[in-house]
Amino acid sequence: MHHVSWKLCQRFVNDDPPDGCVDDAVAAWKRSKGDIREVLRAIVSGPDFWAARNVRAKVKTPLEFVVSALRAVGADPDTTARLAQVVARLGEPLYLHVAPDGYPEMEAAWVNSGALLDRMNAGVALAAGKLPGVNPTTDSAVGALATPDELIAVVDREILGGTMSGNTKQVIKRQLADIGDPQQARALAIGLALGGPEFQRQ
């Protein structure tokens, strides 16, 4: 009971789950005689779920990254296995984890310089229409805009929900400085946002 509650808090709240979250989950488990819906309800309605240290504390797995990137740009996956191969190249081949415990939940399993570079490359390829197995529609995600600042502001709002840091904005602005083609600029800005640090958070 305690172990499963701890695992659920780790999955949904933080890699290092707060004791209060686990205690609330265990109490709900006892109260409901093991009804997982009630345990999850206790987790998401508890104070730890929305505590500042736990909001966006979890890093997306490769599968979560690919799925959320496709949703962000309104992309239409095809029926081939090519997109699953992209997820595998990012480190999470579907259904192929050797041990029976599933892929890890910890950030350390997914975050290193090579993995982040791979995600950046995948985001840029997706936005440019060059990711195998998918047909992006970046026009619907972000329309044509006149200046880099306008473009970055819209990408921040539409792709990142207003969470883009000042540093990320400056990096994207520098990369856009020498690009005159509005379509290429839009694809690059979206791709860099998808590969950037803010988008890696759940």
Explain this structure.
This protein is mostly helical. It folds into two domains: 2-45, no CATH class; 59-202, no CATH class. It has helices spanning 2-12, 19-32, 36-45, 62-73, 82-89, 113-127, 138-141, 148-160, 166-176, 182-195; strands at 76-77, 134-135. A two-stranded antiparallel ribbon has the order 1-2. Helix 2 runs antiparallel to helix 3 and helix 6 packs antiparallel against helix 10 (182-195). The longest helix has 15 residues, at 113-127.
Outline of the structure:
This protein has 202 residues and is mainly alpha-helical.
Keywords:
202 residues; mainly alpha; two-stranded antiparallel ribbon; 10 helices; 2 strands; 55% helix
Show the helix and strand layout.
Layout: H1 2-12, H2 19-32, H3 36-45, H4 62-73, E1 76-77, H5 82-89, H6 113-127, E2 134-135, H7 138-141, H8 148-160, H9 166-176, H10 182-195
Antiparallel strand pairs: 1-2
Helix pairs in contact: 1-2, 1-3, 2-3, 4-6, 6-10, 8-10, 9-10
Q: Which runs of at least 5 residues are low in confidence (pLDDT < 50)? A: none
Structural class: mainly alpha
Q: How much strand?
A: under 5%
Major sheet: 2 strands, antiparallel
**Mean pLDDT across every amino acid position:** 91
Shape: globular
User: Strand order of the main beta sheet, please?
Assistant: 1-2
The tally of structural domains comes to: 2
Q: How many helical elements?
A: 10
Order of SSEs, N→C?
A: HHHHEHHEHHHH
Q: Roughly how much helix do the residues carry, as a percent range?
A: 55-70%
Radius of gyration based on Cα positions: 19 Å
Instruction: Give the N-to-C terminal Cα separation.
Output: 26 Å
- How many E-type strands? 2
